[in-house]
Amino acid sequence: MTFQRGKFITFEGIDGAGKSTHIQFVSDCLRARGIDLVSSREPGGTPLGEKLRELVLHEPMHLETEALLMFASRREHVAQVIAPALARGAWVISDRFTDASFAYQGGGRGLDRAKLEALEQWVHPDLQPDLTFLFDVPLEVARARLDATRDLDKFEQEQADFFNATRNEYLRRAAQFPQRFRVIDSSRSIPEIREQLQAIVESLSA
Ligand SMILES: Nc1ncnc2c1ncn2[C@@H]1O[C@H](COP(=O)(O)OP(=O)(O)OP(=O)(O)O)[C@@H](O)[C@H]1O
Ligand SMILES: Cc1cn([C@H]2C[C@H](O)[C@@H](COP(=O)(O)O)O2)c(=O)[nH]c1=O
User: Fold this and answer.
1) Per residue in 71-100, pLDDT tens?
2) Is ipTM strictly over 0.90?
3) Domain positions in the chain
4) Which of 53, 99, 110, 166 could form a disulfide with 43 if both were Cys (CB 3.0 to 4.6 A apart)?
5) Helix-strand-coil percent breakdown of the chain, rounded to 5?
6) Is the separation of the CB atoms in 45 and 77 below 8 Å?
7) Residues pairing with 37 in the sheet
8) Residue in 124, 117, 116 with CA at minimum distance from that of residue 64
9) Where is the Thymidylate kinase-like domain (predicted)?
10) How far apart are CA 68 and CA 162, in angstroms?
11) In a 10 Å sphere around its CB, with 0-12 CB exposed, 13-18 middle and 19+ buried, how is residue 108 labelled?
């Protein structure tokens, strides 16, 4: 028996844009449609990846070390979780993937894009998301949402210039890959965003 490869969906956006809020909703919509779904996150998603997550979110380190650890976590995630699930026909949702490295380490921190492209080619030469939701929101809105909720990690404590550059790189990539990106105006209310997400999910799983 041959299985059709499952679909790979990623959620992206600057910290506080609201992507995590909507992952559960989209997951519930897909499961209600009978789809076998694996939901995961980066950095993380495996026992080793979760240890790397603790390091990159809390320890100061060289920019290139940070990028390499993101891709080390990703290599493990692809090998242990994403590729096996897709191969057996399950769908995978990941809270962030390689677009985040281009946006944060590339846009935010200024790492040469060619180095990120080389890492991408090394770590997942044959894998790209089928669909990427980019939750786009002005920095001030994201910041207000974060400040209201929790202690901030290393990235969340970055300044406005960092997040503006990160957001701009996300938007640049959305324009570069329009066939897989859906830019969601995340400054709207949660019910309005859900309505749009539901329509996209229904068209995808029809
Ligand atoms: N559309 C919205 N309107 C108002 N509040 C929202 C909206 N979306 C999310 N929030 C709230 O903003 C806060 C941050 O949301 P969430 O954790 O989903 O962001 P995130 O993009 O996943 O952030 P991070 O990447 O840092 O984990 C939460 O308290 C959430 O309830
Ligand atoms: C995958 C990935 C993530 N990051 C950053 C982006 C966020 O600030 C954190 C993860 O936190 P979240 O609350 O789970 O979104 O990590 C990054 O800089 N580069 C990456 O490749």
Assistant:
1) 999 999 999 999 999 999 999 999 999 999
2) yes
3) 10-40+93-204
4) 53
5) 55, 15, 30
6) yes
7) 91
8) 116
9) 11-196
10) 19
11) buried
- Residue for token pair 């960092």: 162
Give, for ligand 1, the residue of 20, 25, 26, 154 to mutate: max count of ligand atoms closer than 8 Å to Cβ.
Answer: 20
Q: Is 44 left (phi over 0), alpha (psi -120 to 50) or beta?
A: left
Task: Give me the CATH code for the 10-40+93-204 domain, please.
Answer: 3.40.50.300
Task: Please give the distance, rounded to the nearest whole angstrom, from the Cα atom of residue 89 to the centre of ligand 2.
Answer: 27
Q: Which residues are annotated as a binding site for ATP?
A: 13-20
How many residues does the structure list for the chain? 206
3-state SS, residue 159: coil
Strands (E), 61-101: 91-95
Q: Which of 6, 13, 22 is nearest to 181 (CA)?
A: 13
The ligand whose atoms approach the alpha carbon of 21 most closely is 1
